[in-house]
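Reminder to self: tokens first, then the designed residues, so the page reads top to bottom the way the pipeline ran.
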């Protein structure tokens, strides 16, 4: 008998590992497939729920393994339908994930790290120091929790996933990719990769890597300024990862994947609300086929940033659209419960 503390989390095992375990215990390998499907396709949290396994086999599993799961510690619902989950990880740390209902889709916004190391001046998550990366199953479980909420509260399926919660997904690339592999696998959630968007501050080296890997998900870059001096002042990553390097990496991404990049861009009063800034964005957009989402700024506590006025937004919109760049204004969702972009962690400390 393995003691409780030594028991291994069975979800850290691959399908082959579980098959091998059964063979070593005198069972047929297909038992491994059954267990794997319970764990990932059906997301069961207890060996007793694996009803096509004999009682003896369930006991065998319980003797050797545990099933670690995240659990939703607190769920808040916004007036606009958005749901924010405070998710407790097995070691007690907390991250947040958000369900965003739209007319035609339901989107899960998930976290990839506890805290963040990047220090973007306008983001609430940046106020928390980075504690650790999430494991692939912790990322997967956030999606499952939101999928269940979509079915329960909206009677609709989850349709889209965005990596726009806490953390920088390209600094936890291996686990993010493992989670996406399981989310898109027929033995997992069987969702289409084209429904998944990874949002990044734009780490050039890593963008080249995902292009090289020919990943099938979409790429969004939090640009916010196409002028180095301004971008470095609000996003310190830009000091060592300039716009030229970023642009070169994005050109490579497009060459490999033939998929447009989406730029996320907030227009702030006194920071990037002039024509000079809009022209710089237009020139940046011309380098790689791209679209722009102008996102509404969500104020954070003691923040010094302020959303620009409507005229500035219209000026951006007109210039970009006139030059053939698809541009949308994204209204923010879930503001009343601090679930909007950049507000995650506003109140969890
Ligand atoms: N680290 C990744 C993903 C997390 S942030 C990234 O930077 O892309 C998700 C998006 O929210 C990014 O575009 C980010 O720039 C934006 N964001 C951060 N703080 C914000 C705020 N207070 N208001 C609006 N958008 C914000």
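Designed residues (349 positions):
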């Amino acid at each position: 008998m393995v003691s409780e503390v030594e028991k291994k989390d069975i979800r850290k095992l691959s399908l082959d590992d579980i098959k091998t375990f059964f063979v070593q215990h005198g069972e047929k390998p297909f038992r491994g497939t059954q267990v794997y499907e319970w764990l990932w396709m059906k997301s069961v949290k207890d060996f007793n729920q694996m009803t096509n396994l004999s009682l003896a086999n369930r006991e065998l599993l319980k003797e050797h393994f545990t099933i670690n799961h995240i659990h939703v510690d607190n769920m808040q619902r916004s007036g606009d339908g958005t749901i924010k989950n405070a998710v407790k990880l097995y070691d007690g740390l907390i991250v947040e994930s958000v369900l965003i209902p739209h007319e035609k889709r339901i989107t899960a916004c998930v976290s990839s790290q506890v805290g963040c190391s990047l220090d973007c001046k306008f983001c609430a998550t940046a106020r928390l120091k980075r504690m650790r990366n999430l494991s692939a199953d912790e990322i997967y479980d956030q999606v499952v929790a939101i999928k269940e909420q979509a079915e329960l509260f909206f009677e609709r399926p989850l349709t889209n996933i965005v990596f726009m919660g806490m953390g920088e997904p390209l600094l936890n690339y291996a686990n993010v990719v493992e989670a996406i592999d399981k989310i898109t696998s027929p033995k997992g959630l069987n969702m289409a990769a084209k429904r998944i968007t990874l949002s990044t501050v734009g780490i050039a080296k890593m963008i080249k890597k995902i292009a090289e890997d020919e990943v099938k998900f979409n790429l969004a870059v939090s640009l916010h300024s196409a002028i180095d001096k301004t971008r470095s002042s609000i996003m310190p990553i830009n000091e060592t990862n300039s716009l030229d390097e970023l642009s070169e990496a994005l050109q490579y991404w497009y060459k490999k994947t033939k998929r447009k990049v989406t730029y996320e861009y907030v227009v702030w009063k006194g920071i990037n609300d002039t024509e000079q800034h809009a022209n710089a964005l237009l020139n940046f957009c011309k380098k790689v086929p791209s679209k722009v989402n102008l996102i509404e700024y969500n104020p954070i506590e003691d923040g010094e940033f302020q959303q620009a006025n409507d005229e500035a937004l219209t000026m951006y919109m007109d210039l970009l659209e006139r030059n053939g760049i698809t541009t949308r204004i994204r209204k923010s969702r879930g503001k009343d419960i601090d679930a909007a972009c950049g507000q995650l962690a506003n109140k969890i400390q």
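The two ends are 40 Å apart (CA to CA).
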